[in-house]
Each structure stands twice: as C-alpha cells, then as structure tokens.
Amino acid sequence: MSIIILAIESSCDDTAAAVLRDGVVLSNVVASQDVHRQYGGVVPEVASRAHQENIVPVVDLALRNAGVDKNELSAVAFTKGPGLIGSLIVGASFAKAMALSLGIPLIEVHHMQAHVLAHFAEDPKPALPFLCLTVSGGHTQIVLVKKHLEMEFLGQTIDDAAGEAFDKTGKMLGLDYPAGPIIDKLAQSGQAVYEFPEPQVPGLNFSFSGLKTSILYFIKEKTKENPNFIQENLPNICASVQARIVSILLKKLRKAAQQTGIKEVAIAGGVSANSGLRSGLEALGKKEAWNTYIPRFEFCTDNAAMIAVTAYYKYLNGEFAGQDAAPVARFG
Ligand code: KG4
Ligand code: ZN
Known about the structure:
Bound molecules: 5'-O-[(R)-(carboxyoxy)(hydroxy)phosphoryl]adenosine, zinc ion
Strand order of the largest sheet: 3-2-1-4-5
CATH class of the largest domain: Alpha Beta
CATH superfamily of the largest domain: ATPase, nucleotide binding domain
Largest sheet: 5 strands, mixed
C-alpha cells in the first residue's frame, strides 16, 4: 500500500502544503504573504493571521493538485520549529485536528532538517554521507548528513544569518523586504568593485555582523561625498556585497570538505536560490572534484515538499507525534 503524506509548513511568512506519495512529490503549494513588504520585515502577528486565512485554501489546493482525497492520507506532518511561534501554532493545530479527525498518525518535522532533506525531493539525490551548507533568513549552518535523520552540525553563524546579511543590506540600500532576491538580480548587472572585509572566525563557524557594520559605514561615507552614491552605483554595491557573502560561505564549505574528506556537497535554504552562490558552488565543485547538489528554486525557499520528504523518512522509522505535540520557536 502506498504511503501518502500531507505536509504543512507555516514557520515564517509562507503558508505551504504538499502531498507526497511513496517519496514522490505530487503537489507543492506555497502562498507567500506579500503583506509584510510594506513593513520592511515579517510582522509576527500579521503572519499568524495570514496563515489562519490561507491554510484551508492552500491545503485544499495541495490535495486537489495531487489528485488525492483526504481519506487516502497515511499521515499528516507539520513544522515543529524553529520559527515564529504564532505562525507555527496555526500549522500545528491544523495538522493535529486533521490527523485526529481522520484517525491517522501525526508527524512533527524540524524545519532546518527539512531544508537539508529537500535534496531528496528530486533527482539526482546526494549519496550519504554528504555535506550541506544550509543558508536561510534565520540560519547559516554546515551540516554533516550521516543518515537521512542523523545530522551533525559542524559549524554555524555566531551572529546574523546569511539571509539576514542580504536583507539588512537591502534595508540600508532602501530595497524592499526580502532583499536577497532583489540584490541577486541587481548584482547580475554590476561588478564587485568594492571590497568588504572578510571576518576572521575560527573553525567552521560564520559571522556576518561585522560585514553589516562595514557596509553601513561604507554607505555613510560614500553618501557624505555624493548624496546620490547609492542610486548611481546600486548594481556594483549589490555585486560587491553578494560576492563577499558568497566567498565567506564557500570558504568554510571548502574547509569542511577538506576536514571531512567528503566530496558530496550540497546547499539548501532560501539563500541557495542566489545565483552567485549557485555558480560559485559549481565552479568550486569542479575545481575540488566534488559532486555538487543545488535544489530547484521551489525547494530552496520555504516549502512543504521538504517537510513531507522528512516526514516520509520519519514515517518509515515509526517516529510519530502525540496530540500533545507543541511547536517550539527555538531548539536547544
Ligand atoms: O529558507 P527561507 O525561505 O526562509 C527561512 O527559513 O528563513 O529563506 C529566506 C531568506 C531571506 O533572507 C531571503 O532574502 C533569502 O532567503 N533569499 C535570497 C535569495 N532568495 C531568497 N538571498 C539571496 N539571493 C536570493 N536569490
Ligand atoms: Zn526556511
């Protein structure tokens, strides 16, 4: 008999649902909340309310696109965290109610583990063990994936995440939120002519707060000389910032590969949609003789297919949650 899983992701500002049959993604629906753009960042209260409005139509559409009736489902999965607690509660409560009413198991999924396992939503899949650089709005981590559900953290950011570095730079430049994709687009018509300092962080950890400060001082100084500096040089500023963020990420990834001797190397999370990081990884991978894995765009940013894939492995392991399952904003 087939294993059919409905997964719900509501950790931040995307309401998402996906259906997976025997490890194959049948549907993957995301409703992004554009309402936050006007505030220059995600407003938690607004996000929870939008999830509440979106969740029924998004789940309906995911089932319809998959051609699956809810009575055929084997389990319902949801994101346990990390994320915004009010947003997580909407997805968790919905999943619990659905599992209870259908009399099927409930599965809770760690959002960052799911970003890594997004690689198993499509082919080619990385061979185990592999290294994954997971870069999102809230996290920057290098993970050693030993088994699907067994991951070791080799390094992480000690302050800001890579996505935050993009988004905060965008704010300084007067760009909309989230600025990552906007900076990426602008960078494509610019040159990395400005040099931002590289942080000196030991081991496989990252730091982006110093970079943020140096960008702030750079902009202040340049606009003092020329009030139109930003408008006149936006593509070059974006290309320079992006080049530095990418170089910081890839340097540590290379170090991790050298230390572990692993040549299966992947990237995941929202920032893995960045064109500079994608092409940088490909080039480095060729040089280092790695097999590199870059997710399709829809599996980079927040989505429920990755939650469904992770839930599938948990289902096979018999790892189910009770009705007392409660989401958490942070782990550890
Ligand atoms: O994984 P994700 O969708 O949500 C979190 O779990 O945080 O990641 C969102 C982050 C945001 O910081 C956004 O600016 C960044 O991913 N992002 C990008 C690009 N697309 C999304 N950053 C740089 N370049 C992109 N193309
Ligand atoms: Zn995410």
